[in-house]
Design a protein that fits this description.
The complex is a heterodimer of chains A (234) and B (271). Chain A is mainly α. Chain A has one domain: MetI-like fold (Orthogonal Bundle). In chain A, 80% of the residues lie in helices and 0% in strands. Chain A is globular and about 65 Å long. Chain B is an alpha/beta fold. Chain B folds into 2 domains: 136 residues, Periplasmic binding protein-like II (D-Maltodextrin-Binding Protein, domain 2, 3-Layer(aba) Sandwich), CATH 3.40.190; 109 residues, 3-Layer(aba) Sandwich (D-Maltodextrin-Binding Protein, domain 2), CATH 3.40.190. Chain B is built from 11 helices and 12 strands. In chain B, the strands form 2 sheets. In chain B, strands 1, 2, 3, 4, 5, 6, 7, 8, 9 and 12 form a 10-stranded mixed β-sheet that branches. Chain B has a two-stranded antiparallel sheet with strand order 10-11. Chain B is globular and about 55 Å long. The termini of chain B are far apart. Classes of the chains: A mainly alpha (234), B alpha/beta (271). Chains A and B meet through α2, α5, α7, α9 and α10 of A and α1, β2 and α8 of B.
Chain lengths: 234, 271
């Protein structure tokens, strides 16, 4: 497997030499995906908890739609955001197309359903256990939400990490709304797609290894912080 | 604590997102083709243009069909593609006010080096296409409405070949992925020379037919209509458009080579 061998060598060289182009691409990838996950978590966690706490007409439909959107193909999300942000579209005035901000928006569309749908499930399960206890404290639903979110934090961290995985791995959405512009909107996944297109398979696979390493680092950091939190509380 | 960890994650996210704010650097967005970008031409000539004018060019490289669509919607300031008929139609439809010849390269027919269809000694390009169809050897087509795909389709049409057989594989991919696929299935493929020269994963593929004048591949720059999309950076885009056909721009294009082989041949002013 000469390509695989070359890929490891390429990945190693890229990392050891701290290739400036690569650093720029890595920084932008993290910037876009972390921002998207942050926004999706700020909206999705309370949204998921609300869906678990409040019953209202059409709630079932909302839950089904959220679950279905977990499987939204990135290229469709990208196309939807493209049509919104295009000059001919409703938000064209903002001039956001082919910028990192457009990429963040597209990834929020992808990550938000995952965070909201999965956190609803976790909170609903927790609510089943705690309902009487919480009600006995005389807490209203709105007051229950922070308690439930806090008690489900370990599971919700995993939910947010799943969202980060989706954001950092997708290529279809950021390619359409970002345009893969060198030095401006080129991220890890679009760079990998480009090098594959150019037939530079070793470099493409090398970049893929760097991306895997990066995602592993983010997950390891979350895991270690979670462990420390558990020990401190223990 | 978990809460502190979440907060620090959020703070990191915000800190990282700070540079997302748009800079007020002068730049235009150029919709162009994958062949020009992937061959490395823009990486070579854009810095020279920036040196002269202080304007950066951000290239969105897509198929010619999509490049037209991006420009039609007002999402790019300038357009550089290779489909002369389509470009003239674009001007006629009022989306662009001017079209200029900038440069050309040529298309080549690539295939497995043992050449089962025997196109290497074909009389001309049409004959080569006919021989591929007659032999029933697999042929991979871009199938993505790109300039290269449009040119390929015109050859089949002229050769009177029906491309519905199982030998004809329409991929719906860019030039690079199509070459990757052709290499994987030992198929014939119609490609622009620039992408081929910059392409690494050739395996058993080789250029089998080239040199017919019919394989000429003209690139044109379009000046987009000011009234249709007034918000675009027309003044900056016009500087780019004029620079491409200026002596300096033409020299920059002529100077770009891979392994000593010139990829694009400037021909501004030839209408």
């Amino acid at each position: 497997m000469p390509i695989a061998d070359n890929a490891f060598a390429t990945a190693l060289t890229l990392i050891v030499t701290l290739d400036p182009t690569l650093l720029n691409i890595v920084r932008l990838s993290l910037q876009v995906s972390l921002s998207a996950v942050l926004i999706a978590a700020l909206i999705g966690l309370p949204l998921g908890a609300s869906l678990a706490l409040w019953a209202f007409p059409g709630r079932g439909a909302v839950v089904v739609v959220l679950n279905a959107f977990m499987g939204l193909p990135p290229v469709v999300a990208g196309l939807m955001v493209y049509l919104m942000l295009s000059r001919a579209g409703p938000l064209g005035e903002l001039g956001l197309l082919f910028t990192p901000t457009a990429m963040v928006i597209a990834q929020v569309v992808l990550v938000l359903p995952i965070v909201a749908a999965l956190s609803r499930q976790h909170i609903e399960a927790l609510l089943g256990e705690y309902r009487e206890q919480l009600a006995s404290f005389g807490l209203g639903r709105a007051r229950m939400m922070p308690t439930l979110l806090w008690d489900a934090r370990v599971a919700l961290t995993t939910v947010v990490l799943a969202g980060f995985g989706r954001a950092s791995a997708e290529v279809g959405a950021v390619l359409i709304v970002g345009g893969n512009i060198d030095g401006v909107t080129r991220v890890m996944t679009t760079a990998i797609a480009l090098e594959t297109n150019r037939g530079n398979l070793a470099l493409a696979l090398g970049l893929g290894l760097v991306l895997l390493l990066l995602v592993a680092c983010v997950n390891a950091a979350a895991h270690l912080l979670g462990e420390r939190a558990r020990r401190q509380m223990g | 604590m978990q809460r502190r960890h979440l907060l620090s994650t959020f703070a990191l996210g915000i800190a990282l997102s700070a540079p997302l704010a748009a800079d007020d650097e002068r730049y235009i967005t150029l919709a162009s083709t994958t062949s020009t970008e992937q061959s490395g031409l823009f990486a070579d000539i854009v810095p020279q243009f920036r040196e002269t004018t202080g304007i950066d060019v951000r290239v969105v490289a897509v198929g010619t069909g999509q490049a037209f669509e991006i420009a039609r919607r007002g999402d790019a300031d300038s357009l550089l593609v290779h489909d002369t008929q389509g470009e003239e139609q674009f001007v006629a439809d009022g989306y662009a006010s001017e079209r200029l010849d900038v440069m050309y390269n040529d298309f080549v027919l690539i295939g497995p080096s043992d050449d089962p269809a025997g196109i290497a000694d074909a009389d001309d390009a049409l004959d080569a296409f006919s021989r591929i169809a007659a032999s029933g050897s697999p042929f991979t087509s871009r199938g993505d409405d790109s300039g290269t795909h449009r040119a390929e389709q015109r050859f089949w049409e002229e050769a009177g070949v029906d491309t519905t057989g199982g030998w004809y594989r329409e991929l719906g991919s860019g030039m690079g992925p199509t070459l990757n696929t052709a290499a994987g299935m030992d198929a014939y493929v119609f490609a622009d020379r620039a992408t081929w020269l910059a392409f690494d994963n050739r395996q058993d593929l080789a250029i089998l037919f080239e040199g017919d004048e019919a394989l000429f591949n003209q690139y044109g720059s379009l000046l987009l209509d000011r009234e249709r999309h007034p918000h675009l950076k027309h003044d900056l885009a016009e500087q780019w458009h004029q620079w491409l056909v200026s002596d300096e721009g033409q020299a920059a294009i002529a100077g770009y080579a891979i392994d000593g082989e010139q990829l694009f041949f400037p021909n501004a002013g030839h209408h």
